[in-house]
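Can't paste images in this forum, so I'm doing it all in text. The chain is below; anyone willing to post the predicted structure tokens underneath?
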Amino acid sequence: MQTYSFGDVRLDRRADVITGQIVATGSLVPRRFGGGRKGELAAGRFLDSPKVTPEAILDIHVMRTAAAAQGRRIVAIQDTTEVNFSGRDRSRRGLGPGADGKAKGFFIHATVAVDADSEQLVGVLDAQIWTRPPAGRRKRRQACTVEEKETMRWITAMKQAHLRLLRAATKRIHITDREGDFYPLLARVPEGDDLVIRARHNRKMPAGGRLFDAADAWPDLGVSEIVVPPRGPGDKPRRARVALRASRVRLAKPESRIATSDPDEIEIGLVEVREIAPPAGVKAVHWRLLTTLPTATREAAAEVVRLYRLRWRIEQVFRALKSDGLALEESQVEAADRLFKLAALGLTAAVRILQLVDARDGSDRPATDVIDAKLIEPAAAIGKTLEGKTKRQQNPHAKGTLGWLSWIAARLGGWNCYYKKPGPKTMAIGWRQLAAMISGFVIATSDLAVYGADV
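Text version of the structure:
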């Protein structure tokens, strides 16, 4: 990780501090997460500094993710979200058109790491943040090479995840939804890595026929039960029984005016997932998953489906960043460069909140996945005051683990150890209280004293 300097304090440390403040306050408004007028001014200087970039802000969290991924099978999930300022874009500066071509906005293409076995969120791996030029959609599509197209972000993210996990993870599996289904991505999976992607295009096959028709002649491997992620806010996950079919297929390189060095055909696995007897009024699950993973047995095909289902984790991150959480689209920051930095800070804060939610049932991962080691003892002292006399009211997790820290945050957020499990809002409130209670300890450290924040 590259080290940057900002004033008397390393930039990576300053970015980590501000992320903690955003988590603590549940806000991306500088006057709120700044912890008072002094903190607000410091946050403003941070966002205004030309030395501060979104990449620099993300660096400390990427390094922490790589360390946490050590020895684990990691799923690298990538997706794109839009931040649209429709109805509140009059004073925005430096932004291009959003997806609708009208309102101003920008885009975030993020990659997050998820443990393939525990399914817990490990951290941020990459984020590309950009705004579109006024020239619009036609010019983007007329780009001369793949590398010049906006879709290149998928390949760039895959390569970044590979490099950042190369010496850490024992296995790297890249997951994308249908938008990432384009031939150069399928053809450029890094050596030693695997891919699961939901097919979007009914591609031609070298021997004739189309991809989507191929599975019709295959025998069923059996029936599996899956959890279908919710489709939108307010929706709930549901269970579905699905029939599985799988085999290997060969895909032909699409005809294009743009020449590439990609092979004329590739071999890849295809898993078809078709829901049996869906509930009335509910759209049936029908996924076609392209993968480099094994597919020969029902168990292997079911594992591909399980891994693809983890793609939901990045949608949770985007919701925590936007309307269901930190409300990035409601930010009053106007200039594009400041908004991009704020988006990088918000992304890392959203991931941290969800990590605490993941750990609510217990995680033996170290708490240093999300906080500095020197905060363990202050947190332990606070945690002792929250324990009751009954076994149910005592922290059941080993000191210094992420589960232990999550229990403390949940208690401070109002959870009483009974009834339903604490959610993201409870965790965010609890984190804020924890931050306030150890503020004296943190401010006593030199770098945070310069920042002037509560935590």
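The radius of gyration is 23 Å. The chain is about 35% helix and 20% strand.
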